[in-house]
Fold Acyl-CoA thioesterase.
Amino acid sequence: MRWADLDVLGHVNNVVYVDYLQEARVDLFRANGASRIDDPADDLAEAAVVVRHEVSYLAPLTFGSRPVSIDCWVTEIRVAAFTLAYELFQERDGERVVYARAKTVLTPYVFATERPRRLSPVERETLSAYLEPEERGARVALPASRPETAAHYPVQVRFSDVDVYGHVNNVKYFEYLQEARIRLIGEVWKGLDPISIVVAQTDVDYRVPILFRPEAYDAWSWVARVGTRSATIESLILDGETVLARARVTIVFFDQHTQRSTQPPEPYLDRLRALLPS
């Protein structure tokens, strides 16, 4: 962990978890033989793109000198895609404390043609060494269109957001969604005293690569569900009418004193409910 990883609550920010997962994934490919140094075009550490992230945040992670460990393994190998699972944890007094579990769907990618490709026999064999199959559950569909209640946030791509292939890195999408979500919540609760929220779940589909350019992209976010202790915010990142990414985020109202979920006063919930699509 780095000091800069923390947010205003003193927790490791939800975006940073995804950065940790990326580091674990690249380490798996490079340090354990899944990286094809003899043929960079088949190097899964460099030539695979994220299709979907599903991240469940189970407990707040605070700063400390004790390292965070990540177990990473393969759960499914398909013709042109594979799925990795992760568990982010620490060992404390002989007990395993799990902070997050996640899954990432990836596909090998030919950047010269901007198209996915099939896994090679060598790649399939290499990934099979880390395979722990599990039954594939029904994947919850993410939003394909936005309601009239959606709030707009211009996404300005920074030069540092872009990887060596000219695409915005998958982790940066979580930043864009966070910025759009903060803008939405700030407007909804304007005039009310600040209250704390944490992210419990984030699901993101990556549809079309976001590229560096001077013009901003459009992020639209809206309230899709309101409970007593949590709410769901859905988002789309668009280029005109083209969907670049779609997401669903579950936020939880949080008591900093007890470090547990809490029910906020009714005015906060009422303002969220007023934004629910009819």
